[in-house]
Specification:
- The chain is of the alpha/beta class.
- It has 3 domains: 188 residues, Peptidoglycan recognition protein-like (Lysozyme-like, 3-Layer(aba) Sandwich); 193 residues, Muramoyl-pentapeptide Carboxypeptidase, domain 2 (2-Layer Sandwich); 61 residues.
- The protein is 31% helix and 12% strand.
- The protein has 12 helices and 14 strands.
- The strands form 3 sheets. It has a 6-stranded mixed β-sheet, covered by helices on one side.
- Helix 2 crosses helix 4, helix 9 crosses helix 10 and helix 11 runs antiparallel to helix 12.
- The protein is globular, with a radius of gyration of 24 Å.
- The protein starts with 7 loop residues before the first strand and ends in a 6-residue tail after the last helix.
Length: 474
């Protein structure tokens, strides 16, 4: 039984291991999570019961399963050889995307982990089926070597793309990334990780083509973009990109709590150029703040100009239900989830950029189904007229319908609060790390305190989840 001494032990509640190994020799399998955060990957493992042994990001290494037993991140045809998960495969998920360059600090963590696995399980530092094939214009390059003979007889490193019975094309390492992984020793990785973070370690906000945005592998299957969609229509956002690259609460302001449908701060958007989802059957998605209405309507006009015959579709705006975190701006009518009608995932990256151009205060290409945008509150209460009196309220006044909802005192409410604080602390670390100049002593000290805070909040999340999970079914 083996646990990595420098990894954070984080078993995923509600998931199971793949059982004992049935064949060898030991090998390392490299995956990418097809997401931008550890928490999103962790949630996917839990919902699909397919945890790997390890997940690695730019900050740390998480271990979910002892390497003495099998993980579950590979497809396997029951009763049909060869075995995949149970073929002595130690599996690593790298937070990132197959179709994009990998974060260098995260790769250093992977290299450090690989050196430990190689030593512990006697895995040779070779790629029996050759290097993984790199992406071609951000897409699946095809022609992957999934040799059954190599897999069953030879230890070493394999990409998910090289495992028999599997169809994914990750990790799609480039030659330079493979050389870095294979040639970086544990000490070198430690030295790189100890160095101050640079902008290129964290952020890649450069525009990409529509082809790249539409070709990213995800759990719902590869996105196939027709040739007619590949023409250059201007800059797009990358999947997972946030503009500006800070926490939503920093850009658009914290939530003050829920607003009722009758709140004078909410207006009904009847723009015929917008398709509203109305999945709840009560027209909730038409209600929003005046500022959000202004930005949604501006975006609808840009969509018409960009794609004649296509409309903006709002799938979620103000909400009186419980489908979001307790601090969501949806409950104030200051956030909207958007796609296009007819649906076309290949257009979402460009839609995200158009949302930025329309003046949303924060835009997030959240996942392959939609773009999320939010706006700030009015600069003062005088900017929002009372529907009852038609007169600006006195500055500083908080109406009854504006008072924040009292957070739940249960474990789930506490967990949501800690997760939000964790995300904000991580975003502060990122922001301070990319100031573009040498840190002052005060900034260095602040950065160190923030890193300690991230570690403490990570530990709090693990504790709360371990405590709350047994109560989930009660």
């Amino acid at each position: 039984m083996a646990r990595c001494p420098f990894a954070v032990w984080d078993p995923i509640p509600g998931t199971t291991t793949g059982g004992s190994y049935l064949s060898g020799p030991f090998k390392i399998v490299h995956h990418t999570t097809e997401g931008s955060t550890y928490q999103s990957a962790r949630s996917a493992y839990r919902s699909g019961n397919h945890p790997p042994h390890f997940t690695v990001d730019a900050e740390r290494i998480y271990q979910h399963i002892d390497t003495g037993v099998a993980a579950r991140a590979l497809a396997n045809r029951t009763g049909t050889p060869p075995e995949t998960n149970r073929a002595s495969a130690v599996q690593i998920e790298l937070v990132g995307f197959a179709g994009r360059p990998k974060n260098r600090r995260a790769l250093a963590n992977v290299a450090r982990l690989c050196r430990w696995i190689e030593s512990t399980h006697r895995v040779p530092r070779v790629w029996p089926s050759g290097n993984p094939r790199p992406p071609r214009n951000g897409r699946d390059p095809g022609n992957h070597n999934r040799s059954v003979a190599n897999w069953t007889a030879r230890g070493g490193h394999y990409g998910h793309s090289q495992v028999p019975e599997n169809s994914h094309w990750d990790p799609a390492y480039t030659r330079e990334e493979v050389e870095f992984l294979m040639n970086t020793g544990a000490d070198e990785a430690d030295a790189l990780l100890a160095a101050p973070m640079a902008a290129e370690d964290w952020l890649d906000a450069s525009p990409v083509s529509v082809a790249e945005a539409g070709s990213l592998d995800d759990d719902t299957g590869d996105v196939d973009v027709s040739d007619t969609d590949l023409e250059d229509r201007g800059p797009v956002l990358r999947l997972g990109q946030k503009v500006p690259p800070v926490a939503e609460a920093t850009a658009s302001g914290r939530s003050r709590g829920r607003l009722p449908r009758s709140s004078p701060q909410l207006v009904r958007n009847n723009n015929p150029d917008v398709v509203f989802e109305n999945s709840e059957g009560n027209n909730d998605d038409r209600f929003m703040s005046r500022r959000l209405q202004e930005k949604v309507n501006a975006l609808a006009q840009l969509v018409k100009q960009e794609w004649p015959g296509v409309k903006l579709r709002v799938t979620d705006a103000w909400d009186e239900g419980v489908g979001h975190s307790s601090t969501s701006l949806h409950y104030e009518g200051r956030a909207a989830d958007m796609t296009v009608f007819p649906r076309d995932r290949a257009k979402l990256g460009r839609l995200g950029r158009l949302a930025v151009d329309a003046g949303f205060d924060w835009v997030w290409y959240e996942d392959v189904s939609h773009v999320h945008g939010s706006v700030k509150r009015p600069a003062s209460p005088a900017d929002e007229l009372s529907a009852d009196a038609g007169v600006p309220e006195e500055a500083g006044t908080v109406r009854e319908d504006e008072k924040p909802e009292v957070p739940g005192t249960g474990l789930s409410g506490a967990l949501e609060a800690v997760l939000e604080a964790l995300e904000e602390a991580r975003q502060e670390v990122i922001h301070l790390s990319v100031v573009g100049r040498a840190h002052t002593p005060e900034e260095t000290a602040l950065l160190e305190r923030l890193r300690h805070r991230v570690a403490a909040l990570d530990a709090a999340v693990l504790l709360l989840e371990s405590v709350s999970d047994p109560l989930a079914g009660s």
